[in-house]
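QA checklist item 7 of 12: single-chain prediction sanity check.
[x] sequence parsed
[x] length recorded as 64
[x] structure emitted
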Amino acid sequence: MARPLLGEILLENKEISKEQLDKAIEIQKKEGGLIGIILVTMGAITEQTLVKYLAIQAERVTSS
């Protein structure tokens, strides 16, 4: 099973908008880096939100 993408999890939970995710992906394609760090740098989410959803992502990986 495919690993759940952090951006999609954040979007599902209404932590970010589709526009914010698209912008972060655009930055990632140009400059590289991790989507979560890019979203924090953009001010779209806080570090606490990132940590929370990384834990949720990890949980989904281990339970699938």
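[x] summary fact logged: The two ends are 7 Å apart (CA to CA).
[ ] second reviewer sign-off
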